[in-house]
């Protein structure tokens, strides 16, 4: 029977760049949530290896050996153990190179599916090492829980996950290169996140994020893709918005709302004004 794993969008509610390592990787301090929208990966045993990509964003990806799904399969076979030939299908719904961890989430979903298929514990140390080798965002996507994440992305401290709220994800259909954004950073030794306070309401969360946190990648990303500023302005004008910010290295931005229904109403208005943008209401927890 085929195994289906969801690859949910990763949202950086806050992202502080706190240093740069000798190997070129950056130390980060992030507050991360996972939305209930994303891609999906289906795996099944087959007579030969097959990999297909479809979905509304499929045109932005190629099914070659560099695809993170195929790299996850290959890495699993090399580090964890052999598998039977596999048919793997990726349904791509998230924009490519958009700051919400789409490729990393796809790789993580593939690893989780392989563990289920092979009867292996997804908390295996070798799997965590494999995830990090695929990319800094893959370990947190493998965990798939709201968390404070530090280091290059390997140190994950889950949050309570009890505060539910709505999100509106918006991408102007512009891809932004993560390496280019990091190269454009003016400062790489910024202060980290403060201790996470008790967050009982959406007002507590939005106040904390607005007053105590930031996304250090937003300024360089806006310099590369000025349309990000237009997206943030449009989000900030919507009724019910509590906070608007860019996620990751962009260009996807998000708005915080009290609940999904408020995000859906705002999203309908935004789609009417900007029909060419990708707009996705969602729910999440922290």
From TrEMBL:
Residues 196-272 form the GHMP kinase C-terminal domain. One of its GO terms (molecular function) is 4-(cytidine 5'-diphospho)-2-C-methyl-D-erythritol kinase activity. It holds the Pfam family GHMP_kinases_C. ATP binds at residues 95-105. Keywords: ATP-binding, Isoprene biosynthesis, Kinase, Nucleotide-binding, Transferase. It catalyses: 4-CDP-2-C-methyl-D-erythritol + ATP = 4-CDP-2-C-methyl-D-erythritol 2-phosphate + ADP + H(+). Its EC number is 2.7.1.148. SUPFAM superfamilies: GHMP Kinase, C-terminal domain, Ribosomal protein S5 domain 2-like. GO terms for biological process: isopentenyl diphosphate biosynthetic process, methylerythritol 4-phosphate pathway; terpenoid biosynthetic process. Residues 67-144 form the GHMP kinase N-terminal domain. Belongs to the GHMP kinase family. IspE subfamily. Catalyzes the phosphorylation of the position 2 hydroxy group of 4-diphosphocytidyl-2C-methyl-D-erythritol. This is 4-diphosphocytidyl-2-C-methyl-D-erythritol kinase. It comes from Pleomorphomonas diazotrophica.
